[in-house]
Amino acid sequence: MADTLTISAPADFHVHLRQGTFAELVTKHVREGGFGLAYVMPNLVPPITTTEEALLYKAQLQAIDPVVEYMMTLYLSPELTPQEIRNAKAAGVYGVKSYPRGVTTNSEGGIENYEAYYPVFEAMQEVDMVLNLHGEVPSSSTPGSNTCVLNAEPQFLPHLRKLHAAFPRLRIVLEHATTRAAVECVKALGDTVACSITAHHLALTVDDWAGQSWHFCKPVAKYPDDREALREVIREGHPRFFLGSDSAPHPPGKKSTAAPSSPCAAGVYTSPILLPLTAHLLESFGALDKLEGFVSTHGRAFYKKPAREGEQIVLRRTKSKIQEVWAQGADSVVPFWAGKELNWEILRG
Amino acid sequence: MADTLTISAPADFHVHLRQGTFAELVTKHVREGGFGLAYVMPNLVPPITTTEEALLYKAQLQAIDPVVEYMMTLYLSPELTPQEIRNAKAAGVYGVKSYPRGVTTNSEGGIENYEAYYPVFEAMQEVDMVLNLHGEVPSSSTPGSNTCVLNAEPQFLPHLRKLHAAFPRLRIVLEHATTRAAVECVKALGDTVACSITAHHLALTVDDWAGQSWHFCKPVAKYPDDREALREVIREGHPRFFLGSDSAPHPPGKKSTAAPSSPCAAGVYTSPILLPLTAHLLESFGALDKLEGFVSTHGRAFYKKPAREGEQIVLRRTKSKIQEVWAQGADSVVPFWAGKELNWEILRG
């Protein structure tokens, strides 16, 4: 077994960098985790819905860490126009993120049906922007409906198929897939449809978040067989499946449920340990040789975002314990698997 | 709509009364919740495995509240012999509870396969004791296995069928059923097989415990369609389905997850509000007319435990807010739906 691994230009194609002092804490963790590129989610409060807001947010992130490349996105909402899509493209914004209403953190302004957005998608297809889908339907309280967090993703897939049929040249990413059904659906669609997978969904099943709020995220981790499907498609080296960490920091008090009336925040935080964690996990299921494809080349090819010259990270095989907490000023954040041991660490120059 | 409801002799056929000062707090809640009979689970630390221990525990409970009737059970374990079954029966112990290993609170000593216990079951059938089954198989970490908390109950049902086939006269209760599969299985079996249903599983689905540790229990609440099956069989008034609250108190600190490394305790606590809560829920799905059957006559008929003369509880239709916490000395416990409003309360004489 090799003692070191050199990975070209790791890129995290789905990350939450938050706002204010919390952003100052967590944005630095992109690079700490071995990544030089962050595809940035727009679900701030209020959400990023205009090019101007996206550029302002990008400048704030660059002020925190100017070395990382930030690929910016807009939040799909009724305010978004085809003209704004063209403005966004011209300004270097890469994608538009769609959240079904109410399914995850700060998604209260999410969409309910897609047809109203077809003119926007038409413009996105024309200028070659990417549509990023949070692929879950909202749970239903309608009598007779069986929709809940466990089947919310499979029930979304017909919407994905319909969108791809209507806009076959539109690049679409089904984000943070968690089910065998989603993997099979994306594989069966054309080359313009890809899929991001988080690191934590390669580790967790429903048993891990049952009674363990630190492992609770949306979409929730599903059955063991669903996790196996995610692992299989990575072992296979399928080029349309790549890492998007969905690393989602929350203040620790919001992760440990205090009150019977308030559930904990959804999200698992992996940024500061992302590359060693991903290497550790891929090795655990026999896919270490697919690491560079999964964390760099597949996503970069789909997003048409080549690596910067000479950018690479070296991992060293050594037992390293995951730090329990990262803090700065009044802010702190607890990582996934806090206190556990990984088999890899980043060799720092 | 009637303003009062008179219910004859409510009986809770599955409850956890704990030990020590915690037992002193929670045992009183049986009567506070409107119940005069408690079928007591044996999963103490260490578990109740002998007749002598069961009688001692019963005396401790009677010292706390002598008005309630306590039906005692033994914990199925390798120590249990056919002779001890006969001793237990003679001493008035009613049942034997089987826990699969490691699936819930204090089940580390649970069983792994039933054939070793056939001589014990033979004796139980002969003396007419009841076998209470925690009907879940343990989650598996074997590669290729898809067993997890979501299908642990359906995967247990072949064991139930096999036990019933081997011991057709043995009275068996499948405890706290949570799935349509379990309801259909029990309906299809003979008159010696019954099923308890908790109040909280009539309210919750998987969405309610996702990120909400206060709603986390074992078995976990399942899909909306599973909850609907529980509601349907109660609306139908099926005589082999009755209330067993599985009311399971834990110190509040063990319910709100504090540490990333330790999941919260499994259990929902309903004892002090049990009858008003059950009335509220049954009314919400059109089964209020089945309340007495569900909370009293069905279970009493199956257990051959008639009501004591004149024992009845009157419920009054009025909005009543659920107390946030019950405390005594250093102990406290937070009920299900703390702070929420019920449509019924007990009329106290």
Automatic annotation (TrEMBL), chains A, B:
Pathway: Pyrimidine metabolism; UMP biosynthesis via de novo pathway; (S)-dihydroorotate from bicarbonate: step 3/3
GO cellular component, one term: cytoplasm
TM region(s), chain numbering: none
InterPro entries with a match to the protein in the record: Amidohydro-rel (IPR006680), DHOdimr (IPR004721), Dihydroorotase_CS (IPR002195), Metal_Hydrolase (IPR032466)
Molecular function terms, GO-annotated: dihydroorotase activity; metal ion binding
Leading EC class: hydrolase
CDD domains: DHOase
Gene3D superfamilies assigned: Metal-dependent hydrolases
EC number(s) recorded for this UniProt protein: 3.5.2.3
Superkingdom assignment: Eukaryota
GO BP term, example: 'de novo' pyrimidine nucleobase biosynthetic process
Domain Amidohydrolase-related: start-end pairs: 44-177
Family label: Belongs to the metallo-dependent hydrolases superfamily. DHOase family. Class II DHOase subfamily.
Name of this chain's protein: dihydroorotase
